[in-house]
Amino acid sequence: MLVLAVACVRRERRAADPILPPRLFTRPGLAVACATSFLVGAVMFGGVIYLPQYLQVVRGHGATEAGLLMLPQVGTMIAASTLSGYLINRTGRWKVFPVAGCALVTAGAVALSPIAPDTSPWWLAAAMAVLGVGTGLTQQVLVLVAQTSVGTGDVGVAGAAATFSRTLGGAVGVAAFGAIISARLRSGTPSGQDPGSLLGTPERVAELPAQVADSVRASYSAGLASVFLVAVPLAGAALAAVLLLRETPLDTRG
Predict the structure, then answer these.
(1) Which CATH superfamily groups domain 25-243?
(2) What pLDDT, on a 0 to 100 scale, did the predictor assign at position 126?
(3) What is the DSSP string of 59-116?
(4) Which of 4-13, 201-210, 230-239 shows the highest mean pLDDT?
């Protein structure tokens, strides 16, 4: 992967009309926006992918129920994104939103780090809501930051770069966090058994021998707790990055 990244940068530097001009990353605003999008994307997608599986495998909810129980995170994320956009349009000020958002993402990851099979549903919903508000206040504003960091002719490329960074962070986060959970399942369940074969619908988990099913639930919860422990420094690094940004008031006229 590293070799491909280096080859991509070399190719883009030599291309007459590069897809993602390397010169743009000399702009501190764009570089920080992309780095922060990558980090917050990893945390956000980790939660969106593995929390529903926790709700099914560990808590025994069906797919529809698990989806509805994700509303505290998804709903607050949409509401926070909409509200931040409205306030930025009214005031022309934007820095407070990614700063508050990254702080809330960090707090949400901390709150979810002790997750266990018997975690209170209310605590879980509140922690997911904090995580949702944090990502909602952060992600779309970072696209705006990227776009305002470059000239008019590069606005589209800058916005795409920030969005791509978020998606790339999500892909890396999902893969890395999945490896953490798989390793925990492998060490916490009967030897010689493929961890993936132990997961599935709540009915499938319930069909396992009681001792094995309890081991799967405990191991998955421990793995997810480790995921959020890893997410804490990632979110903290994102917060440190956005604090370095220099705010330039936006022109809200017309």
Answers:
(1) MFS general substrate transporter like domains (1.20.1250.20)
(2) 96
(3) T---HHHHHHHTHHHHHHHHHHHHHHHHHHHHH---THHHHHHHHHHHHHHHHHTT--
(4) 230-239
Residue that is written with structure tokens 């370095």 in the block: 244
Count of C-beta atoms within a 10 Å radius of residue 108: 28
What local confidence, expressed as pLDDT, does residue 254 receive? 45
d(CA 240, CA 238): 5
Q: Are 159 and 143 a contacting pair, CB within 8 Å?
A: yes
In SS3 terms, 116-164 reads as CCCCCHHHHHHHHHHHHHHHHHHHHHHHHHHHHCCCHHHHHHHHHHHHH
pTM above 0.70, yes or no: yes
Cα 49 from Cα 228, distance rounded (Å): 13
**DSSP H or E run through 11:** helix 2-14
How many C-beta atoms surround the C-beta of residue 104 within 10 A?
24
pLDDT tens for each residue of 85-110: 999 988 888 999 999 999 999 999 99
CA distance 254 to 244: 30
